[in-house]
Amino acid sequence: MATATTTVVKYGIIGVGMMGREHLINLYHLCNEGVAVVAIADPHLPSQQLALNLAHSFSWPLKVFSGHKELLDSGLCDVLVVSTPNMTHYSILMDIINHSKPYHVLVEKPLCTTVSHCKQVVLAAQKRPDILVQVGLEYRYMPPVAKLIEIVNGGSLGHVRMVSIREHRFPFLVKVNDWNRFNVNSGGTLVEKCCHFFDLMRLFVGANPVRVMASGAIDVNHKDEIYDGKVPDIIDNAYVIVEFDNGSRGMLDLCMFAEGSKNEQEISVVGDIGKGEAFVPESVVRFGTREAGRDGVQSLKATDPRIKYDGLHHGSSYLEHLNFLAAIRGEGEKGPAVDLEDGLVSVAIGVAAQVSIENGRFVTIHEVMDGLQV
């Protein structure tokens, strides 16, 4: 709860499409923590208006800018949320990091659409120790996922050997100017959507990726859509295998034409002495040991009493903001929980998977990270 002596942290949101407005609502539910959204920037007038309507309903006056540079130069904010289309992240982040005024930043995933751009952002940010940059890989905060992470970190599964993540869901939503229908804009489905899951794999196994093998295609969705004479090229299903430097393996099973599923995400983590599972949105966690067998499997409903707004991601965006606010105010960890390195590696795995599909072979992370001919 904010006190009379708490300084209000002023936020600006760059990009107020669907996710930008989602951030606006989450921040409103954090107003008792001493936050306020004071400015937005977006060239798209309908998005501007929808954000203004929301802010009006919250009794939050907003300064509106058509471009992010004008917002930066205004000096109105302390913290910026970047929720623009993926292909714009790089230039906007570089403008923020290189600006004379220090702004803390929460950037939506993926960090950038290419490994090269991610690396340039990382290098630029290293020269600005006065700012914090957190990447919006908020799936790790979903209550069932967070509980499974806690179980893994507690050692009750032993040394993690295998992580399997199944996402069976609906197709990509319609976005402003249909930007998410093309790889050149999004980075590709395995970057745009699946960086979340590659981040979780790395978190569960406690290691870095070595090489990736993937098979995928565009088989069902968007094939009858045409934009400016072009048919979308984003894949709608894939299998991805990731090998890590400690010998562990991860596998992603992605299908984006599977609306008839009870759970959108099913996560399985198997160690040498036990197994844990998380189900979203059921918010159920199951775990057991080899020794106890099937009859010893425990099941629980995962909740987090701190969540005041579930939103689009089962409360994880709310917790993400709560966590970042604590980092900004210097409570607990010195740096953001999800840093630029996490953002970079999650993109690198996705890029390697996309290249693997194109080339029909294993692709090493070394190839992708070092910009070798792939």
TrEMBL record:
Q: Which GO molecular function entries does the Swiss-Prot or TrEMBL record give?
A: nucleotide binding
Q: Which residues form the Gfo/Idh/MocA-like oxidoreductase N-terminal domain?
A: 10-136
One protein family per Pfam: GFO_IDH_MocA
Per UniProt, residues of the Gfo/Idh/MocA-like oxidoreductase C-terminal domain are 150-364
Protein name from the UniProt record: Inositol 2-dehydrogenase
Q: Which organism is it from?
A: Vicia faba
